[in-house]
Design brief:
Oligomer: single chain
Number of strands: 0
Helix content: 55-70%
Number of domains: 2
Order of helices and strands: HHHHH
Radius of gyration: 25 Å
């Protein structure tokens, strides 16, 4: 994120004592000039600036627009990408929960029955591109190893 002098983010960083001269992440002298507005009260007191962040976090978080597309086709693409993202998050989370449940199983019979279902879910994630095929192979290998260890 690029901080422009005078922007809300710049002022918030100055308020928290993260700007130039305070030992923060930027080199000495990068930001110069007065601090305006409410944030000016905290320009020299880094603890008060940090406290300000905790009390008013909504002033410090980035503001994102829903989309910045100007054409109908691009707006549609943004909508479709959002739907795909939500769907992929659901499938990924469901699979992670199934993996977690399989790892918690202590009986060989239950684990043997659940392994093919979980492996199938992992393969579907790899096929859709949600996870990499090598990650899928590694997950299945570790799960198989765990189930085989229960058999002994």
């Amino acid at each position: 994120m690029v901080l422009q002098p005078g922007s809300v983010y710049f002022l918030a960083y100055r308020a928290a004592g993260l700007a130039a001269g305070s030992g923060g992440p930027w080199p000495e002298g990068r930001f110069r000039g007065p601090v305006f507005g409410v944030f000016g009260l905290f320009s020299k007191i880094s603890f008060a600036g940090a406290l300000f962040f905790m009390v008013f976090p909504y002033l410090c978080r980035p503001k994102f627009l829903e989309h910045m597309a100007n054409h109908k086709a691009t707006q549609k693409d943004v909508r479709q990408a959002g739907k795909r993202r939500e769907r992929n998050k659901y499938y990924g989370k469901t699979t992670r929960n199934a993996i977690r449940d399989l790892k918690e199983v202590k009986e060989n019979k239950e684990a043997g029955e659940a392994l093919p279902k979980v492996a199938s879910m992992i393969d579907k994630l790899a096929k859709k591109g949600i996870i990499h095929k090598n990650k899928a192979a590694n997950l299945k290998r570790k799960l198989t190893k765990k189930v085989n260890a229960l058999a002994k």
